[in-house]
Amino acid sequence: MSLIAQQEITVRSARPQDEKGVISLWHDCNLTTSYNDPSKDFQFALNKSNSDILVALQRDTICGTVMCGHDGHRGWLYYVASSPSLRGSGIGKMMVNAGEEWLRKCGIAKVQLMIRQSNEEVMNFYQHIGYEHTPRIIMAKWL
Predict the structure, then answer these.
(1) Which residues make beta-bridge pairs with 112?
(2) Which of 22, 37, 68, 134 is deepest in the core (most CB within 10 A)?
């Protein structure tokens, strides 16, 4: 991303009125699934002591997001998104860095994320910015 473009982008916590634009970006980036309601996810994470949604703005348009949260021990990043038309410009990395910084300020020393196994493009992105595959078995139960 050019220095001029970087200067045009600001990152801040999402506000309730950002919900429509954030969810639209999540849909554009294929981050939504049939079993997660993005509106409920947005409302659940917004501006709590252990979670937040950060947005990147180019002028007044949402062009990036990251949902960050922690359990007091480990941090997690979710819904990392950058506008498809701006891919490769550094917004994804900017959002990951912003989420990591948010977690650092909360005193969290380790950050994790989950990637669908079929999403090789995203795996390559995270490896490129320093994340490594950590073999684990994740078990889940719907409540």
Answers:
(1) 76
(2) 68
Using an 8 Å Cβ cutoff, are 25 and 49 in contact? Answer: no
Amino acid at the residue 24? S
- What is d(CA 90, CA 106) in angstroms, rounded to the nearest whole number? 25
Q: Which residues contact 29 (CB under 8 A, 6 or more apart)?
A: 81, 82, 84
Distance CA 12, CA 47 (A): 11
Q: 10-residue block means of pLDDT along the chain (143 residues)?
A: 62 97 96 92 93 95 97 94 92 96 96 85 89 84 75
With respect to residue 107, please indicate whether it lies within any of the assigned structural domains. yes
Q: Which two tokens mark 7?
A: 């200067």
Structure tokens at 99: 């989420």
Q: Count how many domains the chain has.
A: 1
Q: Residue 61: beta bridge partners? A: 58
